[in-house]
Amino acid sequence: MNGEIRGPYINHPIVIVKNTVTAAFLLLVMLASFINQIGSSKLFMGAAALLAVLIVFIVMSWKRTSIEFGDQEITVRHDFLYRKTHVIPYPRIASVNVTRSIFDRIAGTETLKFNVNSSVNATAPEASFTFRKDLADRIRDRIYSLTFETESEKDRDEEHESVVSFGPAQVIMHSILSQPTLQVLVAGFFLLIAVVSVFTESSGGILVGLTLFALQEGLPFVSVLLRYFGFRMYRDGDAICLQYGAVQNYRTEFDVGRINAIRLRRPFLARLFRMSCLEAEVVGIDATSTATPLLCLLMPDREAEALIGKILPEFACDIEETSPPREAWKTMACQALVFDAVLIAVMAWPCWWVFQEMDTGGILADAVRLSPAVLTALAAVYAFWRGWRSFLLRSIGFGEDKLVMRNGLLDREWVMIQYDRIQITEVSGDIISRHFGVSHCTVYLLSTVGSKSITSGYFRTEMLERLPPLIQGRIREGHYSPDRDFGTRARRNLR
Amino acid sequence: MDEPEYRRLNRRCMASMYTGYAVLLIVTGAIVAAVYSAVGEIDGPERVRIPLAALYLILLAYCIVAPPVFYRHYRYLIDGEKLDVRRGVIFIRHTFVPIERVMQVEVTRGPINRIWGLADVVVTTAGGTADIQYLNPEEAERVANYLGQVVNRIMRARESA
Hints:
The structure holds 2 protein chains of 2 kinds.
Chain A: E1 9-10, H1 14-34, H2 40-63, E2 65-69, E3 73-80, E4 82-89, E5 93-100, H3 102-107, E6 109-116, E7 127-132, H4 133-147, H5 153-159, H6 168-177, H7 181-200, H8 203-227, E8 232-236, E9 239-244, E10 249-255, E11 259-266, H9 268-272, E12 275-282, H10 287-290, E13 294-300, H11 301-311, H12 326-357, H13 363-393, E14 395-398, E15 402-407, E16 412-418, E17 422-429, H14 431-436, E18 438-447, E19 450-455, E20 459-460, H15 461-464, H16 467-476, H17 488-494
Antiparallel strand pairs in A: 1-2, 2-3, 3-4, 5-6, 5-10, 6-7, 8-9, 9-10, 11-12, 11-16, 12-13, 14-15, 15-16, 17-18, 18-19, 18-20
Chain B: H1 12-38, H2 46-73, E1 75-78, E2 82-87, E3 92-98, E4 102-108, H3 111-115, E5 119-125, E6 128-135, H4 137-160
Antiparallel strand pairs in B: 1-2, 2-3, 4-5, 5-6
């Protein structure tokens, strides 16, 4: 490692300000909760004392946490309250993410987050340090030159144009349409409560309805909007680079070899506009900031599909997909029958009771009397509809080195998984499906946010049972390469 | 471990399951009894009591029937390449873990398993965990040692490659 950046370094002092402001904000929130129970002057005294103690802790922790960039590894040392030395060999580093919060912008700093391939730390970086911007740039460039064999990131950002570009209107559209349907429905329900409360002149109902609507739909909308503003994505050799963020800038870069699966996601609202977005399951990037990385925001279906061939030719392959057999529909129809029988047995008496006991007269009163029966009938019909749509929409395909699945009813997804990244396979079926000779298949793999499972619809059991020997065969033939999980290039460079 | 063929569990697994279910039935029975007496205060208590009693009877029937069915369905196979477990009562699951993916192997013994002299082997991969339940402790240790040796061999082969 270059001597001039060896260190050891401690965090930039802005970290003290950042942590103090965060602690003060949390204390303020707690104060607001207890202000009615305890006298306000005592409370403020106590809070001030607590904040003073916290500041001492923050300063001591800042002073006694250091990072050193050795020839073979990064060493992080904590020596406050507990003593801990954390060594991260360069070959284990999967990505170095850069974030710039408002504090970083004020102080002219950057926060570097070093991520490794790990299911344990999938949602948090292995180490996170804030440096002066010029120093952060030099550190990052040096680590990238070791792990990705690439030139300075700043040069490449200027050199490469984004493969996809999205204007503010498209980001706003993505923020609205990409929300999961269930979340939208729940938010819609809260909005309905607020609207009904306007007519019934219930101020409490309006406030509660609007607050819950804002939490359920407003906050995620703003969060997605701010996160993906200025979205850029390009590929340079084997590295894919993502940049975005309005308030907090975010930049990450990962090797294509680290992608375990790709997913075309089509939430219900987006489907109405024939739009989808492309996601990649990548291990070893800080999921707290990104969740599953988006390779593009919502764009027309055809363009999103074409983007796979453009940016990820490794995943552009035609795999013949098989639809569920007739037995799958028979299975789901029988399951719906059983569900309906139980539902009717459970709901018959409550429906009858509400119908008998509630006041009659007026449209609203009649609607209330009939609502349990109507809802039960709708649930019973939904069980059949769900089975039928699932039969029509789902599919599975076994390629040479990849598996594809089409899942979902309202929010649909098409996912392509590399066989060599599947960790556990499970073929399962209940009494009814076994009778018809069909089963589900669940594959477990390492994802951006830890382990993840993906389950297929009902397909012939003997077809699904082909998957485990297929995976085993590829391992036997040496296709499974652990090097891809542990930084091939970095290992090669350090030899 | 030389013959890679499906193996069955020790019959004591049923005793361990019955013990676990007995504890479950006692706890849920106490809750049901509490609710049963509490609903005496409301009008038409039988409307709550009958469904409650029916649910408890279904649970009781499941607890009686499940262990022998579980024992009959349970099969596991370990060879140099994979861990393969078939199990279930209502839902039958066939779990397959390539040994190449195994990161950690551990033997666990809960209090009920200790009473009946049984142990579980838990295998951890990057994508989740799988287990072989209700083994004799000696068998569990043997399985864990075998898996550990195979994993070490694979890791050494990777290192030297």
